[in-house]
C-alpha cells in the first residue's frame, strides 16, 4: 500500500515535470524574443534574438509609442513602460507603416486596427506568449544572432474584424480601393482576410522586414503553448478614442444612414397596389405603344423593301 502511494506520488511528479518541460515556456514565463536591430540593409531590418525580460523604454520612445501604439502604454501612469523594442525599432516601425498610413489614415479606425498587431509583435512585453521564433540566423559580420522568421498566433476574429474595417476604404487619387494596393496580386475584389495577412507577412515583398506567418486561431485558447493575440477591434463606424470621428460613409458602409426596415417593407407592399396604380397603368400603356410601334415599323420596312425590289 505504502509502495503504491510512493509510486503514485513519483509518477505525479514525473507527469508534472513532463508537462512543464515538454511545453514551450511561454504563458507563465513571458519574455522577449528580440531586442534591438541586428541587421539592416536597403530593404530589410532584422531584430537581434533576445530571450530576457522586457526593458524600460526611454522617454523619447514612450512619446512615440503614445502616438503610434497607445495600447502598449500601461494604464497606471506611474509604472515604467516595459517593452521588447528599443527606440530604434519604434522608429523603424513608424517608417515602415508610413506608406500604409498615407493610404489608410482617411479611416482612422481601420488604420488603428492595421497598426495594432504590428505594435504588439514589435514591442509587447508579452511577446513570447504569442510569437514562436521559427528561424534564427547569424550575421557573419558581427557574429550576432538575429530573428529571421516568426509564427504569430492571432485570432481569426481579429483578422476578420481588421479586414472588415478596411475593406471599403477608398484610394481616391487612383479611383481604387485601398486593398487594390494592399492585398498584392489579389486586388480588392479577390482579397480575403487570410490572403491579406499572408501578403502582409510575406518577406519577398520589400515592405515586410522578415517572414511573419500569421497562424489563425478559432479562440484565445492556447495552441502549442502559445496564446493567440486578440486585440480589440474598432469597427469603422466607431471612433478610436471618442474624439476622432468614425470613418465616413464612402469608406465604411456601416456608417451610412440606413432607412428603418419597417418603412422599406411598407413601401414595397403599399406602393404597388395603392399609391402607384397610376404608374402601373401608364406602364401598361407604354408597353402597348411599344408593341404597336414594333408591329408598325416591321410592316412599313417590309413593304418598303417589297416596293424597292418589286
Ligand atoms: C538584405 O538582407 C537580406 C537578408 O539578410 C538579403 O536577403 C537581401 O539580399 C539583402 N538586400 C540587399 C539589397 O542587400
Ligand atoms: C501604479 O504603479 C506604481 C508603481 O509600480 C504602484 O506603486 C501603484 O500602486 C500602482 N497604482 C495602481 C492604481 O495600480
Ligand atoms: C565570429 O566568430 C568566429 C568564430 O566563432 C570568429 O573566428 C570571428 O573572429 C568572429 N568575428 C567577429 C567579428 O567577432
Ligand atoms: C472569417 O471570415 C472567413 C471568410 O473570409 C469565414 O470563413 C470565417 O468563418 C470567419 N471567422 C470568424 C471567426 O468570423
Ligand atoms: C474551430 O472550432 C470548431 C468548433 O468550435 C472546430 O470544429 C474547428 O476544427 C476549429 N478550427 C480550427 C482551425 O481550429
Ligand atoms: C456599427 O455597425 C454595427 C454593425 O453594422 C452595429 O451593430 C453598431 O451598432 C454600429 N455602431 C455604431 C456606433 O453605430
For the structure shown, list the relevant keywords.
three-stranded mixed β-sheet, 9 strands, 15% strand, 45% helix, 11 helices, 310 residues, transmembrane, NPC1_N, binds 2-acetamido-2-deoxy-beta-D-glucopyranose, two-stranded antiparallel ribbon
Write a short abstract of this structure.
Keywords: Membrane, Signal, Transmembrane, Transmembrane helix. This protein is an alpha+beta fold and 310 residues long. Helices cover 45% and strands 15% of the residues.
Describe this structure in words.
This protein is α+β, with helices and mostly antiparallel strands. The chain has one domain. The protein is built from 11 helices and 9 strands. The protein has helices at residues 2-22, 59-68, 87-96, 98-104, 108-123, 156-166, 178-182, 187-190, 193-200, 261-275, 277-309, and strands at 34-40, 45-49, 55-56, 82-83, 131-139, 144-155, 170-171, 176-177, 211-217. It has a 3-stranded mixed sheet. It has a two-stranded antiparallel sheet with strand order 1-2. The protein has a two-stranded antiparallel ribbon with strand order 3-4. Strand 1 and strand 2 form a beta hairpin. Helix 2 (59-68) runs parallel beside helix 3 (87-96) and helix 6 crosses helix 9 (193-200). Bound molecules: 2-acetamido-2-deoxy-beta-D-glucopyranose (NAG) (6 copies).
Number of helices: 11
Main sheet specs: 3 strands, mixed
Helix/strand-derived category reads alpha+beta
Shape: elongated
Helix content: 40-55%
Structure ligands = 2-acetamido-2-deoxy-beta-D-glucopyranose
Integer count of domains: 1
Overall pLDDT confidence:
85
Order of helices and strands: HEEEHEHHHEEHEEHHHEHH
Query: What is the subunit arrangement here?
Result: single chain
GO molecular function: cholesterol binding
GO cellular component, one term: plasma membrane
GO biological process, one term: intestinal cholesterol absorption
Transmembrane segments: 278-301
